[in-house]
From TrEMBL, chains A, C:
It holds the Pfam family E1_dh. GO terms for biological process: pyruvate decarboxylation to acetyl-CoA. This is Acetoin:2,6-dichlorophenolindophenol oxidoreductase subunit alpha. It comes from the Bacteria. It comes from Thermogemmatispora aurantia. InterPro entries: DH_E1, PDH_E1_Alpha_Subunit, THDP-binding. Keywords: Oxidoreductase, Thiamine pyrophosphate. CDD domains: TPP_E1_PDC_ADC_BCADC. Its cofactor is thiamine diphosphate. Residues 34-332 form the Dehydrogenase E1 component domain. One of its GO terms (molecular function) is pyruvate dehydrogenase (acetyl-transferring) activity.
From TrEMBL, chains B, D:
GO terms for molecular function: oxidoreductase activity. Residues 22-197 form the Transketolase-like pyrimidine-binding domain. This is Transketolase. Keywords: Oxidoreductase, Thiamine pyrophosphate.
Length: 341, 344, 341, 344
């Protein structure tokens, strides 16, 4: 979510051109800030794991920030998303707060799910996040059903279903896409193609042409550079507007890369992907660097802007982690609560 | 509200004032229609539910009244449309999903068990899934191993799900209305051989709470706990036993989750002898839990071990001569009761 | 299965041309005979139902005979098929005997499955039929696994997976096709597109372009007139040879029509399909009529041939039914046999 | 063959002659490797089973020895590759399919329950499905509700399936070899927290028959029936109980289907008091069947009701402080045993 109305802090009234440039700067810097928030959030998660302060594992989103941020920037707060095991980025981009997310990851009571969900099940219905899902492809039906609900209720909401390339292996996805196409539902399937299903390259798991799959089900399909947040945003705006106008579902294939291992514990990766490959993506295809360079080139932002943003984000993350570390665990009796509504 | 005691198998000459006689199939249809009129969020989804009204014709007429927007024919995609049901339920609708044969639940297990059942808990109570999955159970329809199973034990095992097993038109209607109003995922199992069973329902509106067993017949020598299709079997056995001077109490838990343990245990304490009858496979089935609950809860009152009678532990065979051997019969219950009461 | 070697009963040695014509006649007449066997078998099944001699229901294959017969004619006896709830045609075409099939449908002990399977589960491993399946799409994995088995064993066998258009709704099919394509398995997916899923036209259940679906998974795909046994056979030969040569899986989309209702009890059909439509298919697109006319036009066969075939088939069916009606039911103790091997 | 009584939790200073100490993970790997060497029809299929050797690293090294033709990485298609396993098994191969987390069995239920379990019966005994599905169970790994379930009760309920729950390296190796040689579909559940558990195995070849319970510890005052992960819990409790002067017998059924009823009942007759411990959800779980079987079979010998201790009937929560409350512990078993033996 990006605030749509901006005000300038400068003194004299802005010219039309200046105003539009300011708006542009502010918009892209806010996306930059969100991506950086995710990046530093994940760094912190990794540290919590390394220092044995976080229970269990987590799947880091670093490297893929442009997808979540670019797509969610095209959404209203009341639009829905469904997310995945690699879901911190979606959750933050849709509008969740850092502190309550950390609290959830630590299993603490003020966490978004009172510590019951953890990293793989974070949900925040207030910002429209129907939940991460630890079953690969498990939310394809849920997202499609939410879209049917939006259509029936005439609410004008749309739904984004995030999933990884691995979910292309799950039959449920095709069942859901078929119905979305039949009933022209306002749902956008966003595939985060980071080339791997856990430790196996998707060339070994995915036959034929990935893009031909949604197309075969009559779904409008586009492909985008998932490291370029501007490209992702532009495509998402197009597809979201389409869906909101009642023109039916779409599929957005985002080519991207995870900078860390499959999860925080996946340190020795050379047997399935090379260090050179990783270095290339980090050096050449980092979504933060790409947006930063462009903003500099355009003269829209300079060092001071980035420094200011980084300062702010670091403070936010730091405060969030502190909040979570200090937060209480849920009361033992909560274990038997919320089994039934 | 308690039902006037009219035979529910034979058509009563005249229903008492304020009551009507209908079939179990009609009861289901009425419950759905009433709830759909009452609440525009209720909608139906499934294979051939609209014009066809399902192969069992239970839904006939609903699409005509409520339109194709609320009675939705789906592709043959049990996992997909159950998942769609979960998403609908999470976002303000109250879907009723139709799984034609209970055997096809196998295809939707992830959506029911890992998604629907857990969303409320995993979200710390923030999201909820008011979803009803209507489906069937029961053998003896000559439909063989993949169309005859009674798999309700699986769902009774999963926290977060409720499981309903109506055995009369009265129960079917009242329980289905409760299921639709419940904020949790509910599995509603209908015995496909019982759609033509007739029985009385009140003229007016009523619901039946979950977790309240119904004493279908009072007795003092023996308790027969029976579910779904097996309630009529137990009642038939009880009638026969009466001839033999054995007074059998027949109790129908109506919901296996929540389970009304207290009523079961109290009856067992009273009669000291218990048989549990259910059409699911016997081993690791519903009879095991109920027998264990009673064996523990009424331990010091029991004169004999709690006996169980489930379906034979074999895939349901096609051949009628074999299939009929797999399902508990009144005769089998009578035999067991006689042994239990020392009459052989 | 069609016998590949033929002998002539005529006196003088045949010329080369005459021999080839005789072979051709015999081949197509044998296919005609198989189709007629299925047709009359199904008529008899319907009668058994109507006269309450058959337990349960059955899904008749009448109208679709050219698919099973055309495809199975391209197979070796040791090739595998998997079949469906509408499986009598597949079973007969692959080489099962009429009498033991009737016995199975009546739940009798000499039936192919000792009466335990019935119409929806007939299997005959001796003719390579791995079984009908009452779960729509349920055999997609089995067929694909059998193909992997053929490949691992280097047996040169191929597998045909028959299913209806309704199975396109099942995610399992796409999971299986993906793996078949990845591993280049000798399996041919044969879709019997008879326009309906039970009582719902497939235009209401199937979005996009059906043929694009297997193609999207990298599967060689062809479409054929499923009423024309010559076309089906030609396509099947091509695809089977391809698969046997190790060139991987294929998908054959056969456009066809069922002449009866969804099952024997489905008598009132006008709410989902018109009598005119049914009449048109029966009059214009009957696979028996189409092959018969062609044989006549080509001068390959005349009335006497057809009369002779019909006499033979009727006798076979009659004897088969009698056998089945007189056969014993399984012994009660068989109920607990064969739960475990 | 019986195992020398060496502690299976602490590393023994020196294994007795003819025996080696290995982990449960190694035991699985050895069983697979030995069977793959013995029988070229055995092959493995699953997600990340080859180079990665599964996330639990249990299969490390197998692809190097047997090649990618026999250790096959699949797409994330549990239904699809389980179905492929069924087809392989029906046509002369002996596949071992890997379902990474037992929770994902929900996706393959139709292939396991409606296909694999029924093919032999439906075909009148002509076809068979020698398929092993290896998978995991168990909580306390901080993996939350969709990665922590113990769903073995579901499969124990289905005729045509066999269900194996090894609790030691010795059992794991011997039972897995038996599973691979069995002509039926076998569900083989490994506790994911137990892969590092050490124990003795013989140097040479051995197998363990199904349906034979193992008395893990003899005792006279109380029988604790425990499965899989709960065997160590029961043994720990038994050690504590010994301090209190209560002699507990610990019995591990090892397979829930077939179930060695006789050994369970005999022990119950001997001790007169029984606790059943299992990590599946308690209600309608494995403890129910075992309790029902014992309550019936040892009815006249029992001094107290059979007590059950399953997992709490809640989706498994993420937070460690909550998760740890859901699984039976030695302390909980001890408490229950004390009550049962009148020590409180
Ligand atoms: C149904 C299911 N099967 C297997 C797993 C185990 N698993 C977790 S993440 C993962 C890989 C997912 O790959 P992809 O969808 O590409 O997402 P990525 O991790 O690359 O973001 C697997 C196999 C699972 N969680 N759910
Ligand atoms: C998984 C599953 N869902 C539903 C059914 C009920 N059913 C039996 S046949 C059928 C329609 C199948 O249509 P199609 O695949 O086109 O085959 P056809 O009957 O037209 O030959 C349905 C829905 C089933 N048997 N299996
Ligand atoms: Mg990926
Ligand atoms: Mg069809």
């Amino acid at each position: 979510m990006v605030s749509e109305h901006i005000t300038s802090s400068e003194e004299r009234p802005l010219t039309r051109d200046e105003a539009s440039r300011a708006r542009e700067r502010q918009f892209w810097l806010s996306l930059y800030e969100q991506m950086l928030t995710i990046r530093l959030f994940e760094e912190q998660v990794n540290e919590l794991y390394m220092s044995a302060k976080m229970p269990g594992l987590a799947h880091l989103y670093s490297g893929e920030e442009a997808v979540a941020v670019g797509v969610c920037a095209a959404l209203r707060r009341d639009d829905y998303i469904t997310s995945t095991h690699r879901g911190h980025g979606h959750c933050l981009a849709k509008g969740a707060a850092v502190d309550r997310m950390f609290a959830e990851l630590l299993g603490k009571q003020p966490g978004y799910c009172r510590g019951k969900g953890g990293s793989m099940h974070i949900a925040d219905q207030e910002s429209g996040n129907l939940g991460a899902n630890a079953i690969v492809g498990g939310s394809a039906g849920i997202a499609t059903g939410a879209a049917l609900s939006c259509k029936r209720r005439g609410s004008g909401q749309v739904v984004v279903c995030f999933f990884g390339d691995g979910a292309l292996g799950q039959g449920l996805l095709y069942e859901a896409m078929n119905m979305a196409a039949l009933w022209q539902l306002p749902v956008i399937y966003v595939c985060e193609n980071n080339l791997y299903n856990e430790y196996t390259p998707n060339s070994e798991t995915t036959a034929g042409d990935m893009l031909a799959r949604p197309r075969a089900f009559g779904i409008h399909t586009e492909e985008v550079d998932g490291q370029d947040v501007r490209a992702v945003y532009a495509a998402a705006v197009r597809l979201v507007e389409r869906a909101r106008r009642g023109e039916g579902p779409a599929y957005l294939h985002c080519n991207t890369y995870r900078f860390y291992g499959h999860h925080v514990g996946d340190i020795q990766r050379s047997y399935y992907r090379s260090r050179e490959e990783e270095e290339w993506w980090k050096a050449q295809r980092d979504p933060l660097k790409l947006l930063g360079s462009w903003l500099r080139e355009q003269g829209l932002a300079e060092d001071s802007h980035f420094a200011e943003i980084e300062r702010r984000v670091r403070a936010l993350i730091e405060a969030g982690v502190r909040f979570a570390l200090e937060a209480p665990y849920p009361d033992p009796q909560e274990v038997a609560q919320h089994v039934y509504a | 509200m308690s039902m006037p005691s009219a035979s529910s198998t034979a058509s009563a000459p005249q229903a008492p004032a304020g009551w009507r006689e209908i079939t179990l199939g009609q009861a289901i249809r009425e419950a759905l229609a009433e709830e759909m009129r009452r609440d525009s969020r209720v909608l139906l989804l499934g294979e051939d539910v609209a014009e066809a009204g399902t192969p069992f014709k239970v839904l006939s007429g609903l699409v005509e009244e409520f339109g194709a927007e609320r009675v939705i024919d789906t592709p043959i995609s049990e996992a997909g449309f159950t998942g769609i049901g979960v998403g609908l339920a999470m976002t303000g609708m109250r879907p009723v999903v139709d799984i034609m044969f209970g055997d096809f639940l196998t295809l939707a297990m992830d959506q029911i068990v890992n998604q629907a059942a857990k969303v409320h808990y995993m979200s710390g109570g923030k999201l909820k899934v008011p979803l009803v999955v209507r489906t069937t159970l029961g053998a003896t329809r000559r439909s063989a191993a993949q169309h005859s199973q009674s798999l309700h034990a699986w769902f009774s095992h999963i926290p977060g799900l409720k499981v309903v097993l109506p055995s009369t038109p009265y129960d079917a209607k009242g329980l289905l209305k409760t299921a639709i109003r419940d904020d949790n995922p509910v599995l509603f199992f209908e015995d496909k051989m019982m759609y033509q069973l007739r029985g009385l329902v009140p003229e007016g509106e009523y619901t039946i709470p979950f977790g309240v067993a119904d004493i279908k017949r009072e007795g003092s020598d023996l308790t027969i706990v029976a579910t779904s299709s097996m309630v009529q079997v137990a009642l038939a056995a009880a009638t026969e036993l009466e001839q033999l001077g054995i007074s059998a109490e027949v109790i129908d838990p109506r919901t296996t989750s929540p389970l009304d343990k207290q009523t079961l245990i109290e009856s067992a304490k009273k009669t000291s002898r218990v048989i549990v009858v259910d059409e699911g496979y016997q081993s690791y089935g519903v009879t095991a839990e109920i027998a264990a609950v009673i064996s523990e809860g009424a331990f010091y009152y029991l004169d004999a071990p709690v006996k169980r009678l489930g379906a034979l532990d074999v895939p349901v065979p096609f051949s009628p001569v074999l299939e009929d051997l797999t399902v508990p019969t009144p005769a089998a219950v009578v035999e067991m009761a006689k042994t239990l009461c020392g009459r052989v």
